[in-house]
Amino acid sequence: MKDCYLGVDIGSISTKGVIIDDENNIIVSDYIWTEGSPTKAATKLVSILKDRLPENCVIKGIGTTGSARKLVGLLLDANIVKNEITAHAVGTLTFYPDVRTILEIGGQDSKIIILENGIITNYAMNTLCAAGTGAFLSSQAKRLGIEINDFGTYALKSKNPTKIAARCTVFAESDLVHKAQVGYLKEDIIAGLCKSVVLNYLNNVAKGKKIKTPIIFQGGVSKNKGVVKYFREVLNEDVIVDENGHLMGAIGIAVLARKNKIGKTYSLNVKNIKFETKARECLGCSNNCELLKVYKNNELIDSFGSKCGKF
Question: Which residues, in sequence order, are CB contacts of 67 under 8 Å at separation 6+?
């Protein structure tokens, strides 16, 4: 039998999962849309991976990361739960031990991680605004009547990218509509959007950070050839894009699950688990905490939101 480890990265837009072995080889992987329900998405994804897993593999560790890591960690009884900065760094270092800068743009967030000798020395994430993220590009692709998978290919056709104000989604959409109405070519508008994503990222998320090579670009937007082109052009450096860059957070947390295994064997039969959350406001003091109680198979297993520690 082969020991294997599951990593799940639960984001606001998509949920990614990988199962690796002791040599960090990816046995199976997949990603699906979160659709506003991280626990349902995680349950569905784990079931998909389970059905594809070779019979000689046993799960000896489970890790969760991403915005819903704590909740899904309770669902899966994970042996490790870590933030996405750590998970992305560990995943990337596993395959690129000399990396010094990680650029990441996902569905609704983006981040930069600076490393020296394999140690995180600095990082930053985007603000609440989702301008320049995957969701932003998807909405613009829909507005232009183009499949998001073709967005980058259109951008590469452009010989004269138009300027798009992408620091705000509202301004960007207004600018895009105006440029289309006055007759700019569609490929020039798309190239302008891709370039504006890069400039927005470098002027905001990466502001004040010294970007050093080797540089790796990952996250779902790294699949966009246009954005990759303009990162290389604006930085005037080679930017590495790994074919599994969109899975790097899940890979990283799977690696950490392997390093922190506790000798337990895990079941991936999660379809029949009854998992629910119940929210209520505590009026016991002036804090008026919003409590979220977590139940697994009708048993209270955890609660979030208590400021005084009573719950």
Answer: 10, 11, 12, 38, 84
Domain ranges (residues) in the chain: 2-91+250-259, 97-241, 275-304
* C-alpha distances out from residue 185 to 152, 169, 174, 178, Å: 15, 21, 16, 12
| pLDDT of res. 128 | 54
- What tokens were used for 156? 């590469």
User: Could you give the angle at the alpha carbon of 114 between the alpha carbons of 236 and 203, nearest 5°?
Assistant: 55
Q: Is the pLDDT of residue 182 over 80?
A: no
pLDDT exceeds cutoff 80 at 39: yes
- Name which of 144, 150, 84 is nearest 111 in CA terms: 84
* Residue 265 CB neighbour total at 10 angstroms: 11
Question: What are the start-end ranges of the E strands in the chain?
Answer: 2-10, 14-21, 26-33, 57-66, 80-81, 101-105, 110-116, 119-125, 215-218, 239-240, 275-281, 290-296, 299-304
- The 8 Å CB, 24+ separation contacts for 209-212 are 209/101, 209/112, 209/114, 209/122, 209/124, 210/114, 211/101, 211/112, 211/114, 211/235, 211/237, 212/100, 212/101, 212/114
What is the DSSP track for 200-238? Answer: HIIIIITTT----SSEEEESGGGG-HHHHHHHHHHHTS-
At the second CATH level, the architecture of 97-241 is: 2-Layer Sandwich (3.30)
Q: Give domain 2-91+250-259's CATH number out of 2.60.40.10, 3.30.420.40, 3.20.20.190, 3.40.50.300.
A: 3.30.420.40
The 10s digit of each residue's pLDDT in 54-74 is 999 999 999 999 988 999 999
- Predicted structure pTM score: 0.87
- Within this chain, domains 2-91+250-259 and 97-241 share the same CATH topology: yes
